[in-house]
Amino acid sequence: MNWYNEASRIDTLVTLRNIEEMDINRITFTESINDISFVAQYYCLSTLSMGKNAFLQNPIHSNECYEVVMSQSVPHFNDVRIITYSKIVTEVNLMPIKESTVNIINSIDNGINPVAYDMFGDHFNDNNLPIEISNLNWFTVDPEKINRLDADTKLANCAIFLQETHLVNGDSFAVHVNDWAFNETLKERLALRFLGTLCQKIQFAVDKYNKVVEVRCF
Predict the structure, then answer these.
(1) Alpha carbons 216 and 141: distance in angstroms, whole number
(2) Do 120 and 49 touch, CB atoms closer than 8 A?
(3) Which end of the chain has fewer CB atoms at under 10 Å, N or C?
(4) Is the whole-model pTM more than 0.85?
């Protein structure tokens, strides 16, 4: 395998803000919804893979992304918290996922987000305890040696959304992936090729069972 190199885990700087300028507005979305977009599927499947009470953070850097979060993701969660600093929305936090949304996901025959499905699978985690992973070996991917995914419109829009929320001003994001074997077929995974279309750099972590358990994007 010559498309990655063993490396130390990359850390990104955390922007410090004045806590006195922060406000938290908690809202509840009570209207029923019967569909789920590719963007919402990404976050909902991520939640279910980590546990139904997993805490999701959506950074906000534009009105457009805020509208996507509020219209597409928020209706699928019971507890929504809008974080503002100096009266500017900077983050929307979501938890836990609604049972009605779990039922929608379980009933999808066609139209599942293939990237989200490849990342998180359908083995939903009923354990509410946080994921504990230790003794990981980290590797950095050479993006030029990954065949980037030729995404359709829905996946392309999902990629743009992730770029414009999680990859602004040098930020990064991580995903805990489900049952990825660490072998040569890894670079052909749909989700890894998708991430290669939106990231400048990718790292992944391998556990003692030779499984890829986390992917970080920069």
Answers:
(1) 10
(2) yes
(3) N
(4) yes
Per residue in 182-214, is it b (16+ CB within 10 Å) or e — as a string? beeebbebbbbbbbbbbbeebbbbbeeeeebbb
CA distances for 21 relative to 24, 84, 169, angstroms = 10, 8, 21
Distance, CA of 44 to CA of 42 (rounded, Å): 6
**Residue numbers in the chain where pLDDT is lower than 70:** 1, 14, 16, 123, 126-133
Rounded CA separation 188/197 (Å): 13
pLDDT tens sequence across 95-104: 999 999 999 9
What is the pLDDT, as a whole number, of residue 38? 96
pLDDT in tens, 115-145: 999 999 876 776 655 555 678 999 999 888 8
